[in-house]
Amino acid sequence: MVTAPPVPAKRRKSASWTQDPEGVRRDILAVARAEFVENGLSGARVDEIAAKTSNSKRMIYYYFGDKEGLYRAVLEEAYARIRTFERSLDLAALPPREAIATLTGFTFDYHADNPDFVRLVMIENIHHARHLATSTKISVLNLSAIDMIREVYERGLAEGVFREGLDPIDIHLTISALSFYNVSNQASIRQVFGHDMAAPAARERRRRSAIETVLRMVCR
Amino acid sequence: MVTAPPVPAKRRKSASWTQDPEGVRRDILAVARAEFVENGLSGARVDEIAAKTSNSKRMIYYYFGDKEGLYRAVLEEAYARIRTFERSLDLAALPPREAIATLTGFTFDYHADNPDFVRLVMIENIHHARHLATSTKISVLNLSAIDMIREVYERGLAEGVFREGLDPIDIHLTISALSFYNVSNQASIRQVFGHDMAAPAARERRRRSAIETVLRMVCR
DNA sequence: GACCAATTGAACTATCCCGTACAATTGGAA
DNA sequence: TTCCAATTGTACGGGATAGTTCAATTGGTC
After folding, report:
1. Domain boundaries, position B203
2. Are residues B38 and B108 in the same domain?
3. Is the CB of residue A104 less than 8 Å away from at least one CB of chain B?
4. Domain HTH tetR-type: where (chains A, B) (predicted)?
5. Which residue among B190, B193, B212 sits closest to A169, beta carbon to beta carbon?
């Protein structure tokens, strides 16, 4: 008669296995982001995220505390990315008109290319931006984008190509609205009007329209 | 000795109480709408809706089948309302420029005055407009708004006040984007830029900007 | 008044789902 | 090697949650 071995040869992942906390974090974050983007904060399931990770649910709680902590981390990463994008623009090198056109085009493209970001912002707004408010990593007041626009706008005023009386915030809101809406409301636009804004032709057409609209708004 | 009354005086709601299915439906719908708008589809709780109703949870399932059926009913009502609003506009009576300005102003106001509608549309888009797609009561193709714009646009072309080459869809998308974004993203705008778009002064300023922007877009 | 279909109430269930207890393993410091 | 703190796996608990069961009540019709 053979007794079962006392330790039933519990398999290690590989012969000699190294810990990789950063890798684990990144893996979890990527999966979590996809789940939150797809299902929202309430709709996402921690068990589902864990299952799609190469790690166990225990890790999520170890690294992120709870579901909201995980969501906050996803949100922080998304905002960090767009801040990086914004900083990468060098509008000061361009004449005012071209600067505004370039900014609008890039903003439009960033939104169209990153629907995940757009959906996260939608989800966060459904929650009244409660997590943006409590996050310590997301600097609450981000005025660099506005400052960039102000610099260009004043240059355009000085050169006499822009009309007076505009608020940089207003310019920013217009650019954002024209970039955000097509992506955020893509599904309902398709249902109600039968137009697929994600199709290359429609997207390109809309992009040109956005740039033209913003230029007509600011130019004399 | 007095025996307890055979039926222990189970209290009727009032002396003589009448059934009112339509009232029950309306009551449930109003409460459900508030809950869905506040918490989203996944976040809303049927028990919570039932508790805030003057009826029991049983009624919700009796009249609406399940949670999604209730949500669909809320959505259908919201879309029915904005269709009514759209039909109430009589742009044909106005000269083209004024017609576009009026349409933009009214659309802006409708969104600002009905954040519930805006949030429902956001929520529906998070769910990829799946319920808009399956609803039988919401006519999937709603082209009346587009047709209205096309009529005005062609009138403006004929009179030589509008520039050529625009797509009515594009005009509609621009008006919608400029009306929707301030409301849908109100919370994140406040967090990130410290601006409260719901404040009367900011709202009025933005309204004027939207009208001006659309006019500059379409006019020669 | 009797009967039936529409409506309603109260308690219940099965499942889902977030989070935790506890033990085990690992890497590195001494 | 030894020991400790940082990680990680397994199994489970407790409460929330959508939806149901079953019977009772109601209003209208004959």
Report:
1. 76-218
2. no
3. no
4. 22-82
5. B193
